[in-house]
Amino acid sequence: MTKSDGLLLYEYPGTRSARCRWTLQELNVPFSGISIDFKGGGHRDPEFLKLNPYGRVPVLVEGDMVLCESAALCLSLGDRYRDRAVVPEAGTRDRGYHDQWVFFCTNELEQPLWRIFHQSVLYPEDKRLPGDIEFAREDFKGAARILEEFLHNKHYLVGDRFTVADIITSYTLYWADSYGLLEGFPALQDYLVRQSERPACPEELNR
Ligand SMILES: N[C@@H](CCC(=O)N[C@@H](CS)C(=O)NCC(=O)O)C(=O)O
Fold first, then answer.
1. How far, in Å, is the centroid of ligand 1 from the Cα of 141?
2. Of 177, 152, 178, 161, whose CA–CA distance to 78 is shortest?
3. Which domain holds residue 158?
4. Which residue among 4, 21, 103, 192 is least packed, with the fewest CB closer than 10 Å?
């Protein structure tokens, strides 16, 4: 695994790294995507663990700067390329609302999806708590109702323009959709289709 002067994105299609690829593509910033062989355990490779000891994607490397955590990474790129306006300026009212949606997404919408994934795939079968899946589905729907109401007749989460908050949220809705959790949420379904039609949206998220 080599470090270079350019931006390197360690990724795997369909995972959270799609948030970062999408941000980079919206910003039109040159980068090299390095696909980690998840199925072959590439994320446990000692060289990769030197970059992210947690063994997860995405990882963004630029020289000796190594960033993990998808949402932080997208925000940092948005701030760095401020002229391309994918995040509102720090300290503004819009930025407050923007970051509120980013954290709502990672804390409220995403956590129940993790529980479903853990209890249905990740944990050893004899240790799973199938009953928690139903609770997690209800928890997701509780948070999704808030977003559904907010997005009714709106194109974007913040003001009248596309931002990183839309990227983070769209990826999460894409994941939720794979569990059939967008049924009964027409505004969320329309929103996801609209965002995924953007030319910069990674292919795997297309609806
Ligand atoms: N909070 C982290 C989560 C990163 C994460 O869990 N990535 C998954 C793919 S979506 C992964 O690499 N999983 C490998 C593993 O759990 O071993 C982020 O948003 O970047």
1. 22
2. 161
3. 93-198
4. 4
pTM: 0.96
Q: Could you tell me if 59 and 137 lie in one domain?
A: no
- Give me ligand 1 centre to Cα 92, in Å: 31
Quick one: which atom of ligand 1 is closest to the CA of 70?
Answer: 20
Q: What CATH number did the domain enclosing 65 receive?
A: 3.40.30.10
57 Cβ partners below 8 Å, 6+ apart?
10, 11, 12, 15, 16, 17, 36, 38, 43
> Cα-Cα-Cα-Cα dihedral of 29, 32, 33, 34, to 10°?
-160
Q: For the chain, how many structural domains are there in total? A: 2
Residue tagged 């729907």 (tokens): 141
Cβ–Cβ < 8 Å for 25, 9:
no
Going by alpha carbons, the residue nearest to atom 2 of ligand 1 is 69
Q: What is the pLDDT of residues 41-99, one digit of tens each?
A: 999 999 999 999 999 999 999 999 999 999 999 999 999 999 999 999 999 999 999 99
Q: What is the CA(16)–ligand 1 centre distance, in A?
A: 7
- Residue 132's domain is classified under what CATH number? 1.20.1050.10
My answer on whether 180 and 107 are in the same domain is yes
